[in-house]
Amino acid sequence: MKKSALQRVRAEYQPKLPKELQGDVKVKFGEATNSVADQEAIKQLFPHTYGMPVVQFEHNDEPERVEEPFNVGIILSGGQAPGGHNVVSGIFDGLKKLNKENRLYGFLMGPSGFINHQYMELTAGYIAEYRNTGGFDIIGSGRTKLENPEQFEAGLKILKELNIKALVIIGGDDSNTNAAVLAEYYKNINAGVQVIGVPKTIDGDLKNDWIEASFGFDTACKVYSEVIGNIQRDCNSAKKYYHFIKLMGRSASHIALECALETQPNYCLISEEVLAKRMTLDNIVSSICYMISERAKLGWNFGTILIPEGLIEFIPSMKVLISELNEVLVNYASELESLSESEKLQAIQKHLSPANAELYSSLPDRIALQLSLDRDSHGNVQVSLIETESLLSEMIGKRLAEMARDGEYVGKFAAQHHFFGYEGRCADPTNFDADYTYALGYNAAMLINSGLTGYMSSVRNLTDKPENWICGGIPITMMMNMERRNGEMKPVIQKALVNLNGRPYLKYASMRETLALNTLYQYPGPIQYFGPAEVCDRPSMTLLLEHGKEI
Q1: Helix residue ranges, H only, 280-340
Q2: Are 392 and 244 in contact, with CB atoms under 8 Å apart?
Q3: Contacts of range 277-280, beta carbons closer than 8 Å, 24 or more positions apart
Q4: Distance between CA atoms of 391 and 379, rounded to whole angstroms?
């Protein structure tokens, strides 16, 4: 199949490798670790992999000879993120550097391929077609959870058949939680199989001092910021619409915040702030209406508003409503199943407490129905299907009409709606993500060669040049706490939310009032792969600010 001009040239890009990984390496062990919370509970659940030390790689002047070749399996798990193919490329190159006879196998369509023994060997020629490209189409991905011994044993059977000594799981917090459980299980039964995790999620909520960024965040935010910039140029040209733009980020607002720093919209909601201030839906509507009415006084009836995907679950009153809805939908499932939409709304409202019934009835019918859809496999509301952007614009339109009748608003209000999600998940990675993911993969191969299990690949010092990045690994149990999932307390990797005392948020907060009442849009433009380093290799503004750098 013929490739585009960019595909052909981009295939030749050689990711930059940290100098620590450019030759033979040895492991430097740090101090024993503890989980981020619930130490006793996590320790009891992971007796064989809890408390392991952080490790860092150093140059080895006296390399040991690799005795025997070994095989490795990989799983791409969960949603796609730019750079996944370079993780695979990095693992492959790292294995071949150790021993040309080492082999790499990919399990097809995520964890289900591991359980059902669907796989392929990844050869040099096959991998060459995917270097520096977006997507997970090299072997496909899936969302099957690895959580019970039957699955572990089914997977172990194919690992033994293929003589695989290590499994690399490339995924987000849930996928890497599964990796920790799998590592513990295999170590407990002395299966002789190592498990290594790689931090992936465009949402940016899988990070800490040792995992400074999850891969794909940089690329996705730059894709979204380009399109937001384009919309803002159009917005400032036509001067007649308010654009309500919903962005990926169910559990945290890192994407919305990064895009706000990149594009300087008139308004950006931060879910964590909404929760901390215990804002109601009415508070949010009032705040945006105030901005719109003030801009109207200046003759500006246009603007851009960024909305995190998971906002609705951070509004305390909505969270209480959703919690009760979860119970109603389970307890009255048979009653609700055969009803029409209008009958279903009335029946649900009848079963809610008075306060929640009042809030539920105040919502537009289609939003109320969207809140009442079937839950996902984790028991969560499918927030990506809830048109929060439409909910807000509809409520704002009604409020502005009331203000106009009372002489408090003199402008014209018209809304456009956008949701940017899939557009950013499979983009060709930025130079930063291409380098970072390749290093994460190569580093994972070194963790395997060092005999480690239950570790996550860690590459740090990311605001410096790639050759100065620090490589190693951290125990996955170190990132874990206990959370209630589907009515049970379970060990999971703690999500990193936007820090309201952190420099990225404080930087945006310092600009917020000025951005609301002025038109100071920035236009980042498309991702650049060739040209000056300050344009092509710059990491996210979030990462720069978190490391004390100016933007």
Answers
A1: 281-297, 311-314, 316-331, 333-337
A2: yes
A3: 278/316, 279/315, 279/316, 280/315, 280/316, 280/317
A4: 23
pLDDT of residue 66: 60
pLDDT tens, 414-455?
999 999 999 999 999 999 999 999 999 999 999 999 999 999
Separation between Cα atoms, residue 104 and residue 139, nearest integer Å: 12
Output DSSP code: residue 251.
S
What pLDDT, on the 0 to 100 scale, is given for residue 493? Answer: 97
CA distances from 281 to 220, 248, 316, 354, 542 (A): 28, 20, 9, 17, 27
Phi-psi region at 299: left, alpha or beta (left = phi > 0; alpha = psi -120 to 50): left
165 and 193 Cβ atoms separated by less than 8 Å: yes
For helices 173-188 and 149-161, angle between their N-to-C axes, nearest 10 degrees: 70
Instruction: Encode pLDDT of 35-87 as tens digits.
Output: 999 999 999 999 999 999 999 999 887 776 666 899 999 999 999 999 999 99
Q: Which residue has the tokens 């969560």?
A: 380
Q: Are 247 and 198 in contact (CB under 8 A)?
A: no
Yes or no: say if 551 and 544 are a contact pair by the CB < 8 Å rule. Answer: yes
Model confidence band, residue 291 (pLDDT cutoffs 50, 70, 90): very high
| Alpha carbon separation from 305 to 232, 241, 264 (Å, rounded) | 10, 11, 10
Please state, in angstroms and as integers, the Cα–Cα distance from residue 348 to each residue in 148, 322, 354, 381, 390, following that order. 35, 12, 12, 16, 22
Query: Measured between alpha carbons, how far is 435 from 142 in angstroms, rounded to an integer?
Result: 25
The whole-angstrom separation of Cα 256 and Cα 272 is 11
Phi then psi for residue 48, to 5 deg, are -95, -15
Tell me the pairing of strands 119-121 and 194-199. unpaired
- Distance, in Å, from the CA atom of 168 to the CA atom of 478, rounded to the nearest integer, reads 18
| Active site residue ranges | 203
Could you tell me where the DSSP H helices lie in 32-170? 39-45, 84-98, 111-116, 124-128, 149-161
Pairing of the two strands 470-475 and 53-59: antiparallel
Instruction: Specify the range with the lowest mean pLDDT, choosing from 1-10, 314-323, 367-376.
Output: 367-376
- The neighbouring-strand residues paired with 470 are 460
CA atoms of 366 and 8, how far apart (whole Å): 46
Task: Please give the Cα distance from 415 to 288 (Å, whole number).
Answer: 13
Please give the model's pTM, rounded to 2 decimal places.
0.95
pLDDT score at 369? 87
CA separation for the pair 542, 254 (Å, rounded): 8
pLDDT of residue 375 exceeding 90, the answer is: no
Q: Are 460 and 436 in contact (CB under 8 A)?
A: no
Q: Strand 303-308: give its sheet, edge to edge.
A: 267-268, 303-308, 242-247, 415-420
Contact between residue 497 and residue 252 where contact means Cβ atoms under 8 Å apart: yes
Mean pLDDT, residues 148-173: 97
For the CA atoms of the chain, what is the radius of gyration?
25
